[in-house]
């Protein structure tokens, strides 16, 4: 594959996992129309290859396959499902280098981050291989001695999924493996920018023995994406929709799902506050900022978006953060040694980030670092540190999705909490404090589904991932994630 380092002789290469076909019913297929679209490397705009540009007709055909397969897969024992998932997990570990190279090539993140994502993604396969055997029902003691009250948990059916480009491996395994473990079948539309990672997972799943039709992937360009999504939402054969992406798109999907009253999981946009109180460990707070703000070049929904620093330590924090950014962050192609800040996904993303910085500067923000395009050009953006930021600036209102750290000043705990909660989003929030009373108060008062206390990176397979307010519905990962793909059935049994 062009622009991907080749493997040593005798070792499977990343190119061997680059599939230029969609995956339906265990077969590599083209779009019925024969249409394709190009996949672009965001680091250098080189064409990596092509994949089918599928449409509504292709999507409906994949859903029909998944629906037919569900009739048998639902009856496969949890132990059998577990065995297949474990083999799948082992294969991802065995081929972690190849999978990571695909991520770096099509998404741009540095290889170290890509390897971390493959490990994270694999952890969901392993986790749900175990959870599939722990789907329990209940027997309820009723008031009538002539009855027995049972609660059964059964797979919900065909689960449709639309996944994002920023974690093209892990966001698929977090959703799909929970569904497959529950006994559901799956139809996925991966992000148009990053289809190869999804298709590589299909290849390994097939090698692990996952039956044809359980896992299906339809690929489409940005132009066909709305029609593909609508076909998923409106199909009466689909009983569950899971989406990760923007809040605006999530609202459209919810409206389209209403006609068939689908169960939905929505992991939508964030606007994460990152609060540093004056009693915080400054070194840890700065280190946490680097991990939370600049991971994936700031392109995650749980990135620190509004950094609120108490006035007594404000200047010290800004100075220290600037020093660490200069010392530790290196912008470049993800395959280059030492690079830990890759490109943004495309020019549209670059233009948005630049416009947010320009807005802040025009309204009085102070540029401490960055603020200009990187010398490499293209989709590369310098890490930017803005001080003296005000709430009426766009960076105080919008999700940035780029390597820009805006620093706000606050006086009191009440003020910080009020600012943090003054948003329609409620995905993740963070704060640093060494006051145990304050830790309890603020953790409980923040209107967010996930809160990091003295931690900047909080996602893990064991913990539920999901937000409050307009940041979404439902939970992913953890023991709770599989519940999203189960129906609870009450059975009243007369025994007289």
TrEMBL record:
Domain of life where this protein originates: Eukaryota
The EC number(s) this enzyme carries: 1.2.1.24
Any single GO BP term: gamma-aminobutyric acid catabolic process
Subunit structure: Homotetramer.
Keywords: Mitochondrion, NAD, Oxidoreductase
Protein task: Catalyzes one step in the degradation of the inhibitory neurotransmitter gamma-aminobutyric acid (GABA).
Family named by the database record: Belongs to the aldehyde dehydrogenase family.
Annotated protein name in UniProt: Succinate-semialdehyde dehydrogenase
Cellular location(s): Mitochondrion
Domain Aldehyde dehydrogenase intervals: 28-491
Keyword NAD included in the entry's annotation: yes
Pathway the protein contributes to: Amino-acid degradation; 4-aminobutanoate degradation
Organism: Patella caerulea (Rayed Mediterranean limpet)
Record: active site: 267
PROSITE patterns named in the record: ALDEHYDE_DEHYDR_CYS, ALDEHYDE_DEHYDR_GLU
Molecular function GO labels: succinate-semialdehyde dehydrogenase (NAD+) activity
Catalytic activity as recorded in UniProt: succinate semialdehyde + NAD(+) + H2O = succinate + NADH + 2 H(+)
Entry-linked Pfam families: Aldedh (PF00171)
Any single GO CC term annotated in Swiss-Prot or TrEMBL for this entry: mitochondrion
């Amino acid at each position: 594959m062009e622009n991907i380092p080749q493997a040593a002789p005798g070792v499977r290469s990343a190119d061997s996992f680059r599939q230029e076909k969609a995956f339906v019913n265990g077969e590599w297929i083209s779009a019925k129309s024969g249409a394709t679209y190009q996949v672009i490397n965001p680091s250098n705009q080189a064409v990596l290859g092509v994949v089918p540009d599928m449409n509504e007709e292709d999507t409906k055909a994949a859903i029909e396959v998944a629906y037919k397969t569900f009739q048998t897969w639902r009856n496969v024992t949890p132990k059998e499902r577990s065995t297949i998932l474990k083999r799948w997990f082992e294969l991802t570990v065995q081929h972690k280098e190849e999978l990571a190279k695909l991520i770096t090539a099509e998404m741009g993140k540095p290889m170290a981050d890509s390897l971390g994502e493959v490990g994270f993604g694999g952890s969901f396969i392993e986790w749900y291989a175990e959870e599939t055997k722990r789907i329990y029902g209940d027997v309820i003691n009723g008031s009538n001695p002539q009855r027995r009250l049972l609660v059964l948990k059964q797979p919900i059916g065909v689960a449709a999924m639309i996944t994002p480009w920023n974690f093209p491996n892990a966001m698929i395994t977090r959703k799909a493996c929970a569904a497959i473990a529950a006994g559901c079948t799956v139809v996925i539309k991966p992000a148009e920018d990053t289809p190869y990672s999804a298709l590589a997972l299909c290849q390994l799943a097939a090698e692990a023995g996952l039956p044809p039709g359980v896992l299906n992937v339809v690929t489409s360009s940005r132009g066909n994406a709305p029609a593909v999504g609508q076909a998923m939402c409106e199909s009466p054969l689909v009983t569950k929709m899971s989406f990760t992406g923007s809040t605006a798109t999530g609202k459209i999907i919810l409206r389209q799902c209403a006609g068939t009253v689908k169960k939905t999981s929505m992991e939508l946009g964030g606007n994460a506050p990152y609060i540093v109180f004056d009693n915080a460990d400054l070194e840890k707070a700065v280190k946490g900022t680097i991990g939370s703000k600049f991971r994936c070049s700031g392109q995650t929904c749980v990135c620190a978006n509004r950094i609120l620093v108490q006035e007594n330590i404000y200047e010290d924090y800004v100075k220290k953060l600037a020093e660490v950014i200069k010392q530790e962050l290196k912008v470049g192609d993800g395959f280059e040694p030492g690079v830990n800040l890759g490109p943004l996904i495309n020019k549209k993303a670059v233009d948005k980030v630049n416009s947010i910085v320009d807005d802040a500067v025009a309204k009085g923000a102070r540029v401490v670092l960055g603020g200009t395009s990187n010398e490499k050009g293209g989709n590369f953006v310098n890490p930017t540190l803005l001080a003296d930021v005000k709430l009426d600036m766009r960076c105080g209102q919008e999700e940035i999705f780029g390597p820009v750290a805006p620093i706000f000043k606050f006086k009191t705990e009440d003020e910080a909490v009020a600012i943090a909660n003054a948003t329609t989003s409620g995905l993740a929030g963070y704060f640093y404090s060494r006051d145990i009373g304050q830790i309890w108060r603020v953790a409980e008062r923040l209107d967010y589904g996930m809160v990091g206390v003295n931690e900047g990176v909080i996602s893990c397979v064991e913990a539920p991932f999901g937000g409050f307010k307009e940041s979404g519905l439902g939970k992913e990962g953890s023991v709770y994630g599989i519940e999203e793909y189960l129906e609870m059935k009450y059975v009243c049994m007369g025994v007289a």
